[in-house]
Amino acid sequence: MLQQQRTRLLTTISATCAAAALLAGCGGEPASPPAESPETPAAPEQEQSPEQGQQSASAKQASATYGPYQPDAKAITYDPALVPEGAKVDLTSERTNGTTKITVNLQGLAPDREYGAHVHTKPCGPTGEDAGPHFQEKADPVTPSVDPAYANPQNEVWLDFRTDAQGDATATTEGTWSFDTRQDAKSFVIHETPTHTEPGKAGTAGGRLACLNAEF
């Protein structure tokens, strides 16, 4: 009888061990942890659109309020009747794939009026003449330059505009001017009249009304 009870006890222990071994092991190595699931693959990088690939290599901006001349003034008015003190100017020069796009926005000038405007070679000063002549990609050997072969909107930078009833205006131009290798484009000058194109007067636009120091 005692021998039968011992046999049944050993059989029960063995069965219990076998069942437990399936879960955590019994007297053997611990069960291996479940395999980690493979990492979720990273999303592929999106390709640049043609527009993104052609974004400008450089962009420069000048924003200011016109006022009387001071040594540290950024924007100066020489004729407050046509470019009042407090008028605002915002100029952006953006270089993209060898082409420069220049945009100027103006607020608070005389309403319903045409103005001439150009990029000049020198910084603004106490008088409009301090800004020097127009920037020219190919310099005219004769000065002042009034030859349409040189004084034209491709060789120079013309930004003529007309204000609306509130005295606001926007002008834009594009060209292949080599500003990135030159140091003679320093200011944006507003003139009294639209720019002439005829021989002997080409490039002229009357008096210099205001000046903004800017980079291009």
From TrEMBL:
Keywords: Oxidoreductase, Signal. It comes from the Bacteria. Residues 37-64 have a biased composition (Low complexity). SUPFAM superfamilies: Cu,Zn superoxide dismutase-like. It is an enzyme of class 1 (oxidoreductase). Residues 25-71 are annotated as: Disordered. GO terms for molecular function: metal ion binding; superoxide dismutase activity. PROSITE patterns: PROKAR_LIPOPROTEIN. Residues 1-24 form the signal peptide. Residues 88-211 form the Superoxide dismutase copper/zinc binding domain. Pfam families: Sod_Cu. Its EC number is 1.15.1.1. The keyword ATP-binding does not apply. The keyword Cytoplasm does not apply. Belongs to the Cu-Zn superoxide dismutase family. This is Cu-Zn family superoxide dismutase. It comes from Saccharopolyspora hordei.
